[in-house]
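S.,

As promised, the 1,6-di-O-phosphono-alpha-D-glucopyranose run. Input:
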Amino acid sequence: MQVLSIETKPFPDQRPGTSGLRKKVRVFQQPRYLENFVQSVFDSLSGIAGQTLVLGGDGRYYNAEALQVILRMAAGNGFGRVIIGRGGLLSTPAVSCLIRKHRAFGGIVLSASHNAAGPDEDFGIKYNIDNGGPAPENLTEQIHRHSVDIRRYLIVSHPDIDLESNGLFRLGGLVVEVVDPVADYADLMETLFDFDRIRELFASGRFRMSFDAMNAVTGPYAREILERRLGAPTGTVVRAQPLPDFGGGHPDPNLIHAHQLVEMMNGSWPADFAAASDGDGDRNMILGPGFYINPGDSLAVLAANAHRVPGYAKGLVGVARSMPTSAAVDRVAEHLSIPCYETPTGWKFFGNLLDAGRITLCGEESFGTGSNHIREKDGLWAVLFWLNLLAVRRVPAEAIVRQHWAQFGRNFFTRHDYEGLDSAQAEQMLDRLRKRLAKLPGEQAAGQTIQYADDFSYTDPVDGSVATGQGLRIGFESGDRIVYRLSGTGTEGATLRVYMERFVDDTSQHDRTAQTALAELITGAERVVGIEASTGRSRPDVVT
Ligand code: G16
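Predicted complex:
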């Protein structure tokens, strides 16, 4: 089959962000836009001839069209085999799992994660390397360099391949293998968790769970694992059907976007346990009746209880969290005498630590938790971990968290997001603060004395690579902390994220809500940078 070399011109806006390239669907639909980016990815890799690529997406609008283009380009660029999920579906954790299981060269995930989908919404594309994890920064920079120099892309001419049933197809020299998107991932989960104990929990008839798949990719995964393999009643998984527009919702498992689940759990007939995942299945939110578990607390609880779960019974070698994530897990690490690493925001920064065997568990405040079983955060994995704990400890999730606070103290944490800001205004606001950082220590803010103020940078302890400009931190003598950073995953304007944290040892204070306990810091965070004066916004759009 003839490989066509099609002339093209660069687009100036193809630098990958925190997690791949995310843009409006209409941007991706421009002629040559997708092709340019995919070719830039392939041009950044060496030795792809005859290799295996894993491919799939979260089923969002434009997934189906993009997959066919990528298949033709994979053939044009000399890949030997593409493993693709039936229906074009693969969750992000499943892509990571398949890359590792089949020792593939890499994988492509089509998703804009928790961002809304549809013709006027978002699309995204991310390359994962042979460890199953997101491309590290040096590779994403190379991709960007190729994207600004690109002159041609390579493709074959071939009709669309039928992805609706399992099977092998030929596309010139390329073998396309359409596989069950769920089976390998579900098998991996069975090796980590005590499915017998969880099955007993469901069979007891005294435990009711609700899992909200938000009409995104985890529906089929949750049905297979929770309802079929673990025997939870049919209907445990709600909004289980993946839809191209996610049913018009925003598949972000947080208090705002998963509000139906939150209302049910705060209502008169809550389930005993509830969880939700996001568009591509890597995030999770965990709820007990009337009780929300902050992701930072969730990570800390999982770390403290890991010995109770078969896959982690041997103990943890270390843990890591992203810089803005609360330091709750640091206390557990100290207690266990294991190292705790603080990385920049973005899962790609955990990859080297996991590969080097320095950490077992890691997580981010943005509803991401995971372990060394794959190289992505993993929504259903976190849910199964919690189910395993509930099955073993036989107390409600809230009791587990409260006991944890009683033992380790509570890290109150909140994140305030201001979305759709004018990018220049938002950048100038943070630039002004950046220039003042050196003078801030010793000054007063939020009713207390600033101890340090810096722009977070990280030196990877494994390969020595340095990431700078990863968020402005203001730390107080009390240990309280405010962090400001701009999102790297948005597609419209800028999103300012302000993270606030306070550690409280006194158990009598643990019942307060985060917004109350952090009220002083919230006001202080506004005063330090002048969010309203700079952006005109008097309140955040999303509070987690
Ligand atoms: C956000 C979160 C990060 C997360 C990233 C990607 O990035 O803050 O913690 O790693 O999304 O997550 P996902 O793959 O689920 O979209 P940012 O830059 O927008 O803050």
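The chain has three domains: 3-181, 185-408, 410-543. Residues 3-181 form a domain with the Alpha-D-Glucose-1,6-Bisphosphate; Chain A, domain 3 fold (CATH 3.40.120.10).

- D.
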